[in-house]
């Protein structure tokens, strides 16, 4: 196991994530107006390489929220926008007619 090679592989993958999503990260930061900034998270998992004995297969991921979404609803939602969650009054009336 070459731990230095593994670390270089992880660093290269993180760099590729940053290159891939750099523009989106920049846009998200600018949308935050610099007040709180944004959080960019990386994770790495190291597993044995099934093809090469003694080798490590790194896997990395990136996560960030491109924009903050905050929404509040209050009161009843218009009937045509409601999700049918069980038997509605209309369904009860139809069942009673039969």
Q: Mind explaining what this structure looks like?
A:
- 39% of the residues lie in helices and 16% in strands.
- The model has no long low-confidence stretch (mean pLDDT 83).
- The chain has helices spanning 3-31, 89-97; strands at residues 41-48, 56-63.
- It is an alpha+beta fold and 98 residues long.
- The longest helix is centred in the first third of the chain and has 29 residues, at 3-31.
- Strands 1-2 form a two-stranded antiparallel sheet.
- It is elongated and about 75 Å long.
What's the layout of helices and strands?
Elements lengths: L2 H29 L9 E8 L7 E8 L25 H9 L1
Antiparallel strand pairs: 1-2
Taking the alpha carbons of the first and last residues, their distance comes to 73 Å
> What is the global morphology?
elongated
Going by helix content, strand content and strand pairing, the class is: alpha+beta
Strand order of the largest sheet: 1-2
Q: Biggest β-sheet: count, sense, barrel?
A: 2 strands, antiparallel
Strand content: 15-25%
* DSSP helix fraction: 25-40%
Strand/helix succession: HEEH
Low-confidence stretches: none
Number of helices: 2
Number of strands: 2
> Mean of the pLDDT scores?
83
> Which value, in Å, is the CA radius of gyration?
25 Å
């Amino acid at each position: 196991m070459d731990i230095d090679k593994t670390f270089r592989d992880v660093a290269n993958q993180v760099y590729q994530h940053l290159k891939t999503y750099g523009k989106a990260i920049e846009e998200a930061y600018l949308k935050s107006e610099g007040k709180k900034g944004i959080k960019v998270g990386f994770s790495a998992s190291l597993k044995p390489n099934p093809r090469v004995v003694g080798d490590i297969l790194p896997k990395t991921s990136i996560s960030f929220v491109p924009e903050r979404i905050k929404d509040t609803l209050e009161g009843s939602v218009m009937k045509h926008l409601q999700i049918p969650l069980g038997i509605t009054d209309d369904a009860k009336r139809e069942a009673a007619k039969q």
